[in-house]
Amino acid sequence: METVKVEIPVMAEVFARGEKPEYLFWVGCAGAFDDRYKKVARAFAKILTHLKVSYAVLGKEETCTGDPARRAGNEMLFQMQALQNIEIFRNYEVKKILTICPHCFNTFKNEYPDLGGNYEVIHYVQFLEKFIADGKLNISRSLLKDVPVTYHDPCYLGRANKIYDEPRTILKAVTSNLVEMDRNKSFALCCGAGGAQMFKEAEKGNKEIFIERTEDALKTDAKVIATACPFCMTMMTDGLKYKNKEEEIKNYDIAELVVQALGL
Q1: Count of CB atoms situated within 10 Å of the CB of 63
Q2: CA–CA separation, 81 vs 66, rounded Å?
Q3: In a 10 Å sphere around its CB, with 0-12 CB exposed, 13-18 middle and 19+ buried, how is residue 228 labelled?
Q4: Is the pLDDT of residue 241 over 80?
Q5: CATH 3.40.50 region(s) of the chain?
Q6: Is residue 213 predicted with pLDDT exceeding 50?
Q7: What is d(CA 71, CA 195) in angstroms, rounded to the nearest whole number?
Q8: 245 vs 42: CA distance, rounded Å
Q9: CATH 2.40.10 is the classification of domain 11-128
Q10: Which residue(s) pair with 198 in the sheet?
Q11: Which residues, in sequence order, are CB contacts of 54 under 8 Å at separation 6+?
Q12: Does residue 187 surpass a pLDDT of 50?
């Protein structure tokens, strides 16, 4: 097993040395503060180090993109946060942004241009799929090759940005046993946390959305539910706990599965 020593380069320190990284790795609020998603941020950093990618993070200079504020209706707060980020990006001459969160990805890609923030924004599944296509990321000796895996499409990757094939290409490199839920791709059901629903109490109804979506996943008999979004990960994990399935079925982010498959 290859041991990758990961030292995360920080943009201010890199710039102070007179260097300019190719990519800004945007960690996001979940990657910075949520204990579960910190593992995903570390996993992607391991992959970047393994691939010898030129990147840096903002560290303490990173704040929220403003996505939850806008979704909750606080447009002024969104614009304040966005303009602050755009100024920081300008200072560091940022041209390319790598994200692990589809909400951050969507906001940078589709909403920042209205405020003068124009960048090449890449979600990590697009990034890794390209490395696989170019032959620079070989996961053919995957440790998970026979494990049945199902994939939940995040709304902000799927319906919002039509990114369906890339995550599946990566998963097919990780396992030979990818099983689809009945509702998938453009017909996939939301995890129930998007649109700032993550931060409010459930409304009246017969069943919460995350339970319905977890049931979709359980019908596949997969041993792993793969996600590519911090919101989706929280809801799928909660769904497995609600169904008392957390011991026999695991929820991993695609980045974590790639790290496991590579033995990093």
Answers
A1: 13
A2: 6
A3: buried
A4: yes
A5: 11-128, 137-262
A6: yes
A7: 5
A8: 26
A9: no
A10: none
A11: 21, 22, 23
A12: yes
